[in-house]
Amino acid sequence: MGRYDQAEPLYTKALEIRKHWLGENHPDVAQSLNNLAALYYSMGRYDQAKPLFVQILNMTKQLLGEEHPDVASSLNNLGRLYEAQGRYPEAEPLYVQALEIRKQLLGENHPDVAQSLNNLAVLYYSMGQYDQVEPLYVQALEIRKQLLGENHPDVASSLNNLAGLYQAQGLYHEAEPLYVQALEIRKQLLGENHPDVAQSLNNLALLYRSMGHYDQTEPHLVQALKIYKQLLGKDHPHVASSLHNLAFLYHAQGRYHEAEPLYVQALEIAERKLGSNHPNTVTYRKNLERLRDDLSQ
User: Fold this and answer.
1) What is the pTM (predicted TM-score) of this model?
2) 3-state SS class at 268
3) How far is CA 268 from CA 16, 59, 81, 91, 291, in A?
4) Mean pLDDT for the stretch of residues 2-12
5) From CA 263, how far away is CA 286, in angstroms rounded?
6) Binning pLDDT at 50, 70 and 90, where does residue 29 land?
């Protein structure tokens, strides 16, 4: 968390210097705005990130025209923000437009095209449109393997996402080797202590929970939560998600008194960071109510 806190004043100062010397409407100013917006996004401060991402998109269009790779990147970033806020219908046209621009300018076989295919697939997954998801994931994975090799963080991301789809479809034995492979690549390339490693641990834990392997679930969830807290701080949406997942496990095991404070903590973070109506917040609230019903019986 300290690194984020240290980065913010540096990014803010760089932005002020560039605005002073270059004016408001310059590519380097847009770059500084983007750095600050990306920082706020990583910290879960979505309300502060949004106006910056919107400003960057408008600036980039004005400076570079509608059809430019940087415009596609700006559309993609704003789409990711809306997706994180649960505003899926607003995210979709931005992702589609980014994909079209990238295909037109970069060709079908480019890492940025793979990123756009992947992002659109993740969105459709969140919307429950599973029939549209698999072909996009498979295409993104094939492009990434071909261009980047088998052992790359983006390949791990594609493996992880495809595994998530198979898990949602109940294809647990197809999902497990993909999750394990993604985790191994991430540990090897990023080290044990990285948010992507935490994500892989969390996903593998949820798969084991679905398979009824509770003894393998808990240690993965505890480790993921520890990494997220250490790297992102205690008040981040990913921490809320990890707390909820651990609470859900304890609830399922009948460990109600261990589950309740975790549900409460997850809900409090989500309400602060995501708002009362975000899909995650609604889920946490419902599960806490279910637990309290169980406790009262």
Assistant:
1) 0.83
2) helix
3) 35, 36, 21, 26, 16
4) 83
5) 10
6) very high
Domains and CATH numbers, the chain: 49-127 (1.25.40.10), 150-224 (1.25.40.10), 233-297 (no CATH)
Burial of 216 (0-12, 13-18, 19+ CB in 10 A): middle
- Calculate the average pLDDT of the chain: 95
Q: What pLDDT, on the 0 to 100 scale, is given for residue 5?
A: 75
Ramachandran sector of residue 191 (left: φ over 0; alpha: ψ -120 to 50; beta: rest): left
State the Cα angle at 206 between 203 and 209, rounded to 5°.
155
Residue 212, pLDDT above cutoff 80: yes
- Token pair belonging to 276: 């009362």
% of the chain with per-residue pLDDT over 70: 99
Cβ atoms of residues 42 and 16 within 8 Å: no
H/E stretch holding 265 reads helix 256-273
Q: Up-side HSE of residue 225: CA atoms within 13 Å toward CB?
A: 18
